[in-house]
Amino acid sequence: MYCKLIAAGALLTTLGLASAPQETPSTMSATYGSLADAILAVKATEANFVRSLLDGHFHAARAYMERGEAERAAAEMALFANEGDNAIGGVRKRLLEGGHHHNADGEAKGIYEPGYVIVTRRAKEQGLALSSAMRRARDDDERDGVWEQFAELAAPLISVD
User: Fold this and answer.
1) Other beta carbons less than 10 A from residue 121's beta carbon
2) CATH class, range 46-158
3) Can you give the pTM of this predicted structure?
4) Whole-angstrom Cα distance, residue 62 to residue 55?
């Protein structure tokens, strides 16, 4: 047993490991730092993508409102509230199944639905209620009032911090 320890010590000394300081090589920690930067950049990119998706639905809804197509505006408002359509929902589901939760802490606290990036549960409920109100509105004054509320709801969600 003693001979094995001496042989292992000699081998480590020969390789230069026995006298090396006990620390992670700086190149390895620098690489890990770069990896962390990349991971965090991807999260920021995901948030910016979802903001642009929301912005697209907002502008489409506004364009429909300006043309007097309230039903189509209401549909875009619902897509906004849901952070996209079924195709986007499928991507969100795939990310969740892969273990990616953009707002894991917010999900645990009930602030976000699983996989949602920007739209909170409360904003979703409000957006869907406004979409429904847009469909039920009987005249332009009612529709304009609903639109103003929706625009107020949407503004902070699509603004870039």
Assistant:
1) 14
2) mainly alpha
3) 0.81
4) 10
